């Protein structure tokens, strides 16, 4: 496969039909839109140049309820645009004052803004230390949130962000009843990038995490401390509702040669536990995964980990070399001692085409599943993200309302009825990984489409 317009530091996401849509990049690729689909053995990229009105380098791409994409920000682009139909030209770049107002002199610290679609159809945009709700239909800012104090959170300070699991297992199907909460962790001080660039030292990364209920009428940030400092890390939603913090550094920022002291220790975050008991430190890596590293949740539940190149060229021999090795990280739920409790989805007997607010059935087996109750089993849906520079675009985990477990074969196989997400604003159309979770132990994922 061949890409001709440079996709370095671009953005992306999966369209409803499974097409990977890649936007922006560097130099001749900063206004390009690329498409690829794995529907044929000889498929290749389809590239369309000069689509955007402004360059989209270090921008964030997010899917909307209608299946279209919005692209926000980028270096020198204090605006957003909508990705047009393939081959057409974007009609307009909409100025977004937040991006200009949160640009730190020379450092920026607001690239790859954290962006999420929420149930009322508005877009949550977090830039550096401030956040707003943007109506993508009227192009108006409809809400301004409290400032998150303590430092800078976006590239190159490079903190992490994720939505906590969105839960529908409380009969909360109306727009006003659905709770959406964001967590923002790590980053660095506003001047950390400039100091590293000027060889004045690597400032320590931030160690705090902040949670805020976006949908609360009077939202406030609630602060807690991670076990270690982290910049350049990833925050991944795991299929059982936990969040994994992985990769990154403890000092410095993003960009070439700008970080030191890799953070080798993954951390599990359990959002439903009491404050002070949510973090669990896991076994450390032996490979530095800093600038230009990435990670991904696989259908098996493993975590793919790869990359890291803090140089402007390939360097095989260096303190932090160009890293070509890839790894599989096994979260605690993959402990072989838990296999007898692990559900196995029987795909040929399970529904894979879902419709909003319509019940569907999933059949599964468990080696030791006697006397299962509705409380023992949860069904989750995971939207696969485009992860780069510490942010997983379009990522979300949904916990569905599930009930009526029926024993198909005594003590061996079961089927459970679940209600599909109520509308596209909480689950944009497309492909998701569906998991059956038994008391915190997830099955392998099954691809479904809504």
TrEMBL record:
Keyword Signal: yes
Coiled coil: none
Matches recorded under InterPro entries: Gal_Oxase/kelch_b-propeller, Gal_Oxidase_central_sf, Glyoxal_oxidase_N, GO-like_E_set, Ig-like_fold, Ig_E-set
Residue ranges constituting the Galactose oxidase-like Early set domain according to the UniProt record: 342-450
Pfam families referenced in this protein's UniProt entry, alphabetically: Glyoxal_oxid_N (PF07250), GO-like_E_set (PF09118)
UniProt xrefs under SUPFAM superfamilies: E set domains (SSF81296), Galactose oxidase, central domain (SSF50965)
Keywords carried by this UniProt record: Signal
Protein name: Galactose oxidase-like Early set domain-containing protein
Organism: Lupinus angustifolius
Lineage: Eukaryota, Viridiplantae, Streptophyta, Embryophyta, Tracheophyta
């Amino acid at each position: 496969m061949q890409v001709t317009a440079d996709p370095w530091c671009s953005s992306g996401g999966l369209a409803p039909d499974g097409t990977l849509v890649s936007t922006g990049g560097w130099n001749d690729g900063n206004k390009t839109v690329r498409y690829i689909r794995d529907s044929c053995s000889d498929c290749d990229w389809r590239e369309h140049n000069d689509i955007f009105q402004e360059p989209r380098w270090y921008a964030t791409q997010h899917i909307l309820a209608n299946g279209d994409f919005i692209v926000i920000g980028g270096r020198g682009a204090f605006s957003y645009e909508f990705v047009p139909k393939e081959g057409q030209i974007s009609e307009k770049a909409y100025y977004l004052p937040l991006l200009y107002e949160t640009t730190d002199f020379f450092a920026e610290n607001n690239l790859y803004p954290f962006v999420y679609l929420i149930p009322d159809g508005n877009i949550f945009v977090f830039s550096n230390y401030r956040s707003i709700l943007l109506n993508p239909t009227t192009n108006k800012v409809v809400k301004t949130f409290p400032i998150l104090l303590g430092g800078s959170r976006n590239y190159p300070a490079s903190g992490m962000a994720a939505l906590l699991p969105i839960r529908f297992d409380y009969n909360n199907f109306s727009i006003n009843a659905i709770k959406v909460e964001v967590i923002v962790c790590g980053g660095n001080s506003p001047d950390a990038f400039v100091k590293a660039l000027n060889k004045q030292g690597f400032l320590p990364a931030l160690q705090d995490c902040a949670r805020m209920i976006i949908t609360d009428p009077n939202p406030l940030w609630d602060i807690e401390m991670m076990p270690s400092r982290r910049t350049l890390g990833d925050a991944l939603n795991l299929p059982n509702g936990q969040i994994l913090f992985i990769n990154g550094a403890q000092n410095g920022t993003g960009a070439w040669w700008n970080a030191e002291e890799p953070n080798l220790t993954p951390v599990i975050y359990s959002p439903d536990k009491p404050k002070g008991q949510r973090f669990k430190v896991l076994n450390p890596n032996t490979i530095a995964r800093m600038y230009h590293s990435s990670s991904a949740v696989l259908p098996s539940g493993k975590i793919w980990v790869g990359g890291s190149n803090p140089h402007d060229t390939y360097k095989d021999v260096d303190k932090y070399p160009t890293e070509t090795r890839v790894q599989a990280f096994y979260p605690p739920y993959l402990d072989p001692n838990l296999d007898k409790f692990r559900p196995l989805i029987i795909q040929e007997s399970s529904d894979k085409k879902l419709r909003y607010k319509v019940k569907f059935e999933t059949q599964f087996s468990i080696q030791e599943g006697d006397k299962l109750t509705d409380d023992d089993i949860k069904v989750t849906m995971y939207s696969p993200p485009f992860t780069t520079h510490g942010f997983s675009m379009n990522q979300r985990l949904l916990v569905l309302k599930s009930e009526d477990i029926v024993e198909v074969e005594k003590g061996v196989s079961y089927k459970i009825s679940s209600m599909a997400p109520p509308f596209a604003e909480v689950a944009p159309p497309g492909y998701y990984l569906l998991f059956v979770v038994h008391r915190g132990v997830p099955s392998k994922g099954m691809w479904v489409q809504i």
